[in-house]
Amino acid sequence: MNDRVVVVAGAVYDGGRLLAARRSAPPELAGRWELPGGKLEPGESGEQALVRELREELGVETEPLERIPGEWPLKPGYVLRVWAARLVSGVPAPLQDHDELRWIGPGESGTVDWLDQDLPAVAEAMRRLPDGVPR
Questions:
Q1: What is the mean pLDDT of residues 1-25?
Q2: From residue 119, how far is each of 2, 58, 70, 103, 116 by CA, in Å?
Q3: What does the angle CA 77 – CA 46 – CA 7 come to, to the nearest 5 degrees?
Q4: Would you list the DSSP string of 51-80?
Q5: Under a CB-based contact definition with an 8 Å cutoff, are residues 33 and 20 in contact?
Q6: Residues 22-52: tens digit of each pLDDT
Q7: How does pLDDT run across 84-102, given as a tens digit for each residue?
Q8: How many CB atoms lie within 10 A of CB 132?
Q9: In the predicted model, is pLDDT for residue 80 greater than 90?
Q10: Are 79 and 7 in contact (CB under 8 A)?
Q11: Mean pLDDT throughout 72-79?
Q12: Which of 10, 12, 71, 86 could cross-link 19 (Cys pair, CB 3.0–4.6 Å)?
């Protein structure tokens, strides 16, 4: 039996930029940046969880495009999976677990202090800018 908790995150693209979210909780992660998302619920696909989490956390509708290759350990028993996603509607706002959002353009990924586990996915997401994702 697989007891891992899957956490999904979105490399959300709009206008040739990638969305970064600054954590406000828990205290050990506060102030660091991540690709937004959350836990997969029972019966959900990764894509369904991503759409739900981004709606809850940011108030936006997104379309998952493809999974970014790889899987990264978080705390014990948790694993991170990342999907590229397109912003469909809404203006992202930090509604839950974040206190700031920022759009990151090509060559700007080093301007925020990313969580360590997000770095490989961010590198791949940035590699896909500006031509790799429909806008």
A1: 90
A2: 25, 21, 12, 16, 5
A3: 30
A4: HHHHHHHHS-EEEEEEEEEEEEE-STTEEE
A5: yes
A6: 999 889 999 999 999 999 999 999 999 999 9
A7: 999 999 999 999 899 999 9
A8: 15
A9: yes
A10: yes
A11: 90
A12: 12
Residue type, 9: A
Residue in the block written with tokens 């028993």:
77
DSSP string across 76-102: TTEEEEEEEEEEEES-----SSEEEEE
Contact 114, 34 (CB under 8 A): yes
Beta-sheet pairing, 78-89 with 5-14: parallel
**What are the tokens at 86?**
């397109």
20: region left, alpha or beta (phi > 0 left; psi from -120 to 50 alpha): beta
The pTM of this model reads 0.90
